[in-house]
Amino acid sequence: MADAHFDLLVIGSGPAGEKGAAQAAYFGKRVALVEREPVPGGAMVNTGTLPSKTLRETALYLSGFRQRGLHGVDLSLNREARLDDLLHRSTVVMTEERARIDDNLARHRVTRLQGSASFVDPHTVQAGAARVTADVVLIATGSSPNRPPLFDFDDLRVYDSDEIVRVHMLPKSMAVVGGGVIGCEYACLFAALGTKVTLVESRSGLLPFLDGEVQALLEERMAGLGIVVSKCDTVKTVTSEGDGVALTLASGKSLHKDLVLVCAGRNANTGALNLAAAGLTAGKRGQLTVDARFRTEVPHIYAAGDVIGFPALASTAMDQARVAIVDAFDLKYKTSLPTVLPFGVFTIPEVSMAGETEESLREKGIAYVSGRAAFADNAKGRIIGEQHGRLKLLFGRADQKLLGVHLIGEGATELIHVGLTAMLMGATADLFIQACFNYPTLSEVYKYATYDALGALGSA
């Protein structure tokens, strides 16, 4: 017999779990949430998004990186004395965000259960010490780093992307294995602190989902940070050697580094759920398959966030869960995800995009015109010393409708929302021509990139 029955049981308290639980409770549903860890928030709060971005901001501050181009300041970093400084702010931010989540769930009267969750049958879950039943289940268990067997993760000098937020030293040299979003972000973070970073990537380029021009600009700036990228290459052997780690690559290169960070993708956290008892089957890397309303193959069981794979972003996870809950209880509220989603990469410099790339437009046979504006030509850009930032806009050639927005530089992940909102409204180039932007601001680049596109259109 179950200890209690709920309208909704949520498994996991990351961004999808928290927002899904709060959404249902807001509309009067009786909700329980089970979390296996002693603190809420999942990878977003505890090992991924927030700590890594906080480390990035702290690294930029401690190293004086932002001031170098502006005032010629080059602050040296005392590695031993500054490690606590680097990690302190991250701890503060995580603690505050955990408290916010606890407060949000308490305000919505969500019942909290502690412990691992395992299905007994499609409507029954063993949640820690309690056995509960629910009309609807939302699986939001997130993901964990993939750990290739080649690497000895028991070695203090070998880290995965969750462990690196508690790094035990500031390395003088470092190998980052994997040039995806997480690998590129950490490579930039440590390079800003003066670490000599080698990034090993099996593909021919970094972040292939980016517009090709922006991708090339990012690789150029990473090289400017001193990051050495070994493309079309893989690690063949890894050996602890003295006070470091020796790596041999398929290309024949040999590396000796203080630390190794392995960023080899992530696996969905479904292994302990006993999915078979619920009638579910996990796919590649433990991920669950869902439909457009985030229903699994069992209609009353939904899944959202990293557990369903791409795009595996905290922002999309939140909206996925909200859409799932609306569908589950027919709430007549948020019934679908936005047609355009933003992507933010917190490298140095930041990169962000929304909509089409030049490559995707060419593949689709859509005629377009592009416009660019450099931060170096913008008054605010000159004030803050941003010499390399750029906005690129893509408009339909026939109707001048905004199709894609691409940014690299300071504040890119914030500035993207101007273009994102315009695309969601179906705006054309005329919106940016008519709009009056504050001066001096980086947002002005939208107007001048539009002028550039219209100039190209007029001269075609």
Counting helices, strands and paired strands, the structural category is alpha/beta
Gross morphology is globular
Helix content: 25-40%
**Average pLDDT value?**
93
Count of runs of 4 or more consecutive helical residues:
14
CATH architecture of the largest domain: 3-Layer(bba) Sandwich
| Whole-number count of domains | 3
CATH superfamily membership of the largest domain: FAD/NAD(P)-binding domain
Q: CA-to-CA gap between the ends?
A: 74 Å
* Largest beta-sheet details: 7 strands, mixed
CATH topology of the largest domain: FAD/NAD(P)-binding domain
Rg, rounded, reads 24 Å
Q: What is the CATH level 1 assignment of the largest domain? A: Alpha Beta
Instruction: Tell me the fraction of residues in β-strands, as a range.
Output: 15-25%
Q: Would you count the extended β strands for me?
A: 22
The residue ranges in which pLDDT falls below 50 over 5 or more consecutive positions are none
Give structural attributes:
alpha/beta, FAD/NAD(P)-binding domain, Enolase-like, domain 1, 3 domains, 7-stranded mixed β-sheet, 5-stranded parallel β-sheet, 14 helices, 22 strands
